[in-house]
Amino acid sequence: MSKSQFTAILEKEENGYVSLCPELDVASQGESVEESLANLKEAVELFLECASKEEIQQRLHGEVFITRFEAVHA
């Protein structure tokens, strides 16, 4: 078995949290941060198990940078 590390971006929505793995463009959701992250992990693991090596390579983004910035607006 192989292990890989991925990024999780979570966003609060009205009834829970949406989570995204930007490296593979896989998303999930849950009622809490923990549930959303666990569901994302499961979704990524299922994707890696079921997808062909070619599909994984096509979707895999090697470097992902997460940052914040300010935008000026009226």
Structural class: alpha+beta
Helix content bin: 25-40%
DSSP E strands, number: 3
List SSEs in N-to-C order.
Answer: EEEHH
CATH topology: Double Stranded RNA Binding Domain
Q: What's the pLDDT, averaged over the residues?
A: 95
**Overall body shape:** globular
What's this, in brief?
This protein has helices spanning 33-50, 53-59; strands spanning 9-13, 16-21, 26-30. The chain is α+β, with helices and mostly antiparallel strands and 74 residues long. The chain has one domain: 2-Layer Sandwich (Double Stranded RNA Binding Domain), CATH 3.30.160.
Give an overview in words.
The longest helix has 18 residues, at 33-50. The mean pLDDT is 95. This protein has a three-stranded antiparallel sheet, covered by helices on one side. 34% of the residues lie in helices and 22% in strands. With 74 residues, it is an alpha+beta fold. It has one domain: Double Stranded RNA Binding Domain (2-Layer Sandwich).
